[in-house]
């Protein structure tokens, strides 16, 4: 159905996930981690949330820090109250959710949970001053708390505190009014339907952001990708889709001249309503960043910024890769892997010209490059990042680190998670920038989670919410499972303002293609809903065992600040892989979920479409 286009709204029927512990992953808590489904909350007895078949082994003496939980027992081997429209078979794969909700399988009861005594439900999210430039909406809305704090809902792996001050649980931070809808901790109960085909020939890597924009005022969706094969092979393309009227997505070529490679995907930023900037590079192809501006209904001509005077190529003939655009008042930053294969910054006021700023980090090089970075900005004064030392193929000790940038008109300063200053970004930072290891280590190679030891870490996504919560998604290899196609696992990391914690998610499955042992389907955090993530995997995250023939998209919903997740299947019985999900920031009561669908053979050879769903609700 390549040419069928539809606008799909997620049904309004929902089930509050605080009332049941169904669909939980059975992986046990990691060594040294708090028990997030079986132990009692601090100062109160927990009467529910027993983990079903806790395969990883229960940790000893762990406690969670919230209030009283009164949910029912999770049925042994089965899923309590699966959302399938009928009875759930004991321990089986229920497939795509839909219909009116199912019955509780034999062997388990679901008594319904109450809000813990230590937590309160908050409404509304904080609204940053000025909001996202160009959207005209007044800033991000995360909805504040909305969930049940300190909830004990059953075993979905273990959460491991990775340092920092102890959090006392309780209510989420209070906030003002939300800028566009208040997300709540709810699990959808209806199948989302067939996706829209936005581009019949497109793909992207995951180290360029943002790849998708929502222009709220113009009611448009803007999507960047790279075509492969035929007369379109290697060209950068942008699709504009009318969110109000639907119809055929309008595709335009915005750049030519580079080889076919999904790393050459354009990053996008909105300059104003109906005006957008796209920036891209080749994948170690030359020393140029390319850019183009959409204005008055059309794209202009391709322009060039030369990184040669900054120190390109490197002595071992490495050039540049990746583009990441994040906005500050009066300027836009572009993060590029450039000088000495480190992340470097260039800036532009409006997409007309660029100027070099400085170097973010100066990590010692191990193997191919000096680390991989994901970014997230509030488009006001702060950009968060998650980095590694190198490529996981080259470094078994690869770990995940977090820091952030604060910018004023006169200075750009870097900090770790705790707010300790680590460096400045200016011309002098080319030689004096800190290593990524100077920032906060989130998950170290050799740390344990879900009953396994993970090494060779890599990052998928990062989002910071307006209440100060930061979410990072990533993966690691299970230690001792070989180097050709190691066992890879996905993890969720959450900063609550004082400490980081980690939750096991699901098996990542086999490598995506032969030459990249660590390529997986990946995962994405919802930028407007702190309760929601999406993963792409062949494994059913409800049991971490059942496999599908192709990679499917799953939605994870957490009602207890990331300790456990309830899972909803988005795609089912696919004949092609569904990989690399993306959720753009969209203030209001809507969600755009996009991904690549098709056969992925390599970064230079793939037969994939860019598809997606427009869902009702954040």
Main attributes of the structure:
Methylamine Dehydrogenase, Chain H, 618 residues, mainly beta
Concise account of the structure shown:
The protein has two helices and 35 strands. With 618 residues, it is mainly beta.
The fold-level CATH name of the domain at 196-616 is Methylamine Dehydrogenase, Chain H
Largest sheet: 6 strands, antiparallel
Morphology call: globular
The CATH architecture of the domain at 196-616 would be 7 Propeller
Rg, rounded, reads 23 Å
CATH superfamily of the domain at 196-616: YVTN repeat-like/Quinoprotein amine dehydrogenase
Give the C-level CATH assignment of the domain at 196-616. Mainly Beta
Q: What is the total tally of β strands?
A: 35
Fraction of residues in helix: under 10%
**Would you tell me the overall average pLDDT?**
78
Major β-sheet strand ordering:
2-28-27-26-25-24
Strand content: 35-45%
* End-to-end Cα distance: 27 Å
Number of helices: 2
- Are there runs of 5+ residues with pLDDT below 50, and where? 1-158, 162-180
